[in-house]
């Protein structure tokens, strides 16, 4: 392990890096306290791991925290260490697939989501991530030809979302679907709708619309890292695209 002083310096640098957007006019009010909370928990779990370095539960949580803070190589290292300690963690580990994706390791990401499909063959959200990773490697045509199949029903609104990725629905059609009054009180359906339509638009390089939709997704649900895992993932996507667009201006 690194000496305590070096670890404190590393945590300080990480905190500064992930709060770089704080001065922006469109930085939401909740971001700074959220990052502070995540960084504080990271320090606590890191201390626990210095005492019990092979504790799978601690590695799992630290991997999540690293992911939420945008430290993808560190997240991957902890997740892979979990699997080395307990191989039964491999197939269910969709979070590792997401970490690979954000780190640009798209082939590994795709393989991880294929593994998860063998573990849970009903989850179209996993199929979307497999599609997104494969599209980065093989292109849109192949990704559509090799989409995972789901004969059973699914939670809202993943059936129309999956049809959109298959090229059978338009983004406008899916947005109209989730705008129906039956989803007026279903914040999770709204969140997933905005998020995955946003990622679809980003894949098609419709960056302005994608940025709007990702921000809408982030605004739908509360900033609560304890209960909303995918909210944090959507936040990371929004922050990354926002940063890229600022550089393009």
Automatic annotation (TrEMBL):
The lineage of its organism: Bacteria, Pseudomonadati, Verrucomicrobiota, Spartobacteria, Chthoniobacterales. Keywords: Signal, TPR repeat. Residues 1-22 form the signal peptide. It comes from Chthoniobacter flavus Ellin428. The keyword Signal applies. TPR repeats lie at residues 56-89. InterPro entries: TPR-like_helical_dom_sf, TPR_rpt. This is TPR repeat-containing protein. The keyword Signal applies. SMART domains: TPR (SM00028).
């Amino acid at each position: 392990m690194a000496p305590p002083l070096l670890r404190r310096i590393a945590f300080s640098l990480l905190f500064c890096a992930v709060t770089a957007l704080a001065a922006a006019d469109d930085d939401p009010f909740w971001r700074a306290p959220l990052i502070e909370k995540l960084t504080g928990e990271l320090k606590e779990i890191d201390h626990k791991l210095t005492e019990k370095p092979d504790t799978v539960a601690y590695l799992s949580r630290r991997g999540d925290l690293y992911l939420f803070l945008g430290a993808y190589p560190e997240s991957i290292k902890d997740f892979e260490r979990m699997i080395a300690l307990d191989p039964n963690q491999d197939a269910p580990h969709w979070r590792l697939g997401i970490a690979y994706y954000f780190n640009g390791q798209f082939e590994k990401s795709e393989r991880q989501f294929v593994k998860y499909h063998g573990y849970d063959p009903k989850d179209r959200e996993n199929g979307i991530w497999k599609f997104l990773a494969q599209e980065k490697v093989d292109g849109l045509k192949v990704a559509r030809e090799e989409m995972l199949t789901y004969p059973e029903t699914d939670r809202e609104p993943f059936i129309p979302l999956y049809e959109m990725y298959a090229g059978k629905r338009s983004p406008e059609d899916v947005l109209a679907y989730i705008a129906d009054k039956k989803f007026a009180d279903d914040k999770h359906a709204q969140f997933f709708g905005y998020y995955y339509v946003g990622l679809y638009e980003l894949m098609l390089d419709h960056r302005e619309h994608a940025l709007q939709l990702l921000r809408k997704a982030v605004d739908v649900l509360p900033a609560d890292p304890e209960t909303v895992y995918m909210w944090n993932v959507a936040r990371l996507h929004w922050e990354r695209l926002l940063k890229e667009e600022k550089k393009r201006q």
